[in-house]
Amino acid sequence: MPPFSTRATQPSAAERVRSVLAAAHSMTVVSDGHHFEVRRLDDSGAMSRFHLHAPAERGGPSFSHRVPVRLELTDIAPTLVRDRLRARVTVTGLLAAPYGPETAEDTCMEFGQATIEDAEGRAFVSLDALETTTLDPIAHCEASMLTHLVDDHAELVPLLLRLVRPRPTPGMQRAVPVAIDRYGLTLRLEYPRSHHDARLPFATPITEVEQAGPQIHALLAAARRSSHPNRLPA
Predict the structure, then answer these.
(1) Which CATH superfamily is domain 142-225 in?
(2) Sheet strands (E) in the chain
(3) Is there a contact between 95 and 69 (Cβ–Cβ < 8 Å)?
């Protein structure tokens, strides 16, 4: 069975957690009453430091002296938008020994649960869901794609507004790309006292990062065919 439905228009909670864990540059490790800031994560993200195992009763490694641990990560929009915090991800579990700065990079962690919290609420993700979810091919390059669009092709954003449904209401001050994933592009529409996100889904989910460019061009082509004028102030 494919890892995602071709009808999906946005990532599942498991996909989002997997992307945050893979693309994070830093995280906070809370263990044995201490907080450790872990920075400069490599291309494997948080999982370059922690290897998740199933609970012992399900066949995972059994720890004789279990130490609770919590990994805290934040998903921050790479573009300068209002309210840049997109989500908080927390992974809890058990370690064989207290975590510390000298702890080996490949630390075994008995998985407890993973949660993701955003403006829509909180969702719980199982280890099975994380392990069976294919990493979004855009996860590692999302930031560079969004900043490139904003810095080098800002004139295209008003064009993309033609695809927003329902249409932006009067008074919108600006629109900024805030997220991109295998399913589509998200614009943040900012008003004087509020903001909300508008989803522009791709025709089909991306399976390779090289497909991102053609999919964005397809959105632009659809926007050019639309007679709906943009609502950005002149």
Answers:
(1) PNP-oxidase-like (3.20.180.10)
(2) 26-31, 34-39, 50-53, 67-76, 85-95, 107-118, 121-125, 174-181, 184-190, 195-201
(3) yes
Partnered with residue 200 across adjacent β-strands are 185
Could you tell me the CA-to-CA distances from 212 to 182, 184, 215, 220, 226 in Å, in that order? 8, 9, 5, 13, 21
The model's pTM is 0.86
Specify the 3-state DSSP secondary structure of 187.
Answer: strand
| C-alpha–C-alpha distance, residues 89 and 125, integer Å | 10
Mean pLDDT of 68-77: 96
- Over the range 168-199, which residues count as b (16 or more CB within 10 Å of their CB) and which as e? beeebebbbbbbbbbbbbbbbbbeeeebeebe
What are the structure tokens assigned to 194, written together? 């509020």
d(Cα 234, Cα 173) in Å, to the nearest integer? 10
Per-domain boundaries in the chain: 13-132, 142-225
Which pairing describes strands 50-53 and 107-118: parallel, antiparallel, or unpaired? parallel
Mean pLDDT of 217-223: 96
Regarding predicted confidence, which is higher, 73 or 39?
73
Most confident segment among 5-9, 46-50, 94-98, 187-191: 187-191
Q: Using CA atoms, how far apart are residues 159 and 154, in angstroms rounded to an integer?
A: 10
